Recover the amino acids of this structure.
């Protein structure tokens, strides 16, 4: 319970300091230039919305890229550790085709 209270106190302090810092920054900008302040206040939420949109769209692409990179790594490790078996069964062409397919999936 003591740690929970300390954690909540720390979160409250950080939140209060953050809000206070934003307000002081806005007041300082208002004293410097009104138009600049209005532009910042309008463009900041817009940039956050755009960033969120891009992050949502790119997450799935990065996930697919990571999976494909894992498949490529697995194929390369397999080829290095099983090189003599691949050569003895004359499966180089088939293995190269699998590598090309993995590369094509990775590059798009």
């Amino acid at each position: 319970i003591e740690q929970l209270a300390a954690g909540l106190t720390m979160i409250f302090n950080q939140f209060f300091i953050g809000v206070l810092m934003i307000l002081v920054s806005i007041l300082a900008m208002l004293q410097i230039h009104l138009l600049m302040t209005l532009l910042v206040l309008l463009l900041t939420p817009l940039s956050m919305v755009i960033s969120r949109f891009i992050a949502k769209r790119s997450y799935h692409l990065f996930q697919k890229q990571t999976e494909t990179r894992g498949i490529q790594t697995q194929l390369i490790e397999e080829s290095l550790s099983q090189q003599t078996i691949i050569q003895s069964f004359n499966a180089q062409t088939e293995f190269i085709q699998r590598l090309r397919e993995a590369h094509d999936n990775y590059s798009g």
Remarks:
- The chain has a mean pLDDT of 90.
- The first helix runs from residue 2 to 32.
- Helices lie at 2-32, 34-81, 83-88, 92-107.
- The two ends are 52 Å apart (CA to CA).
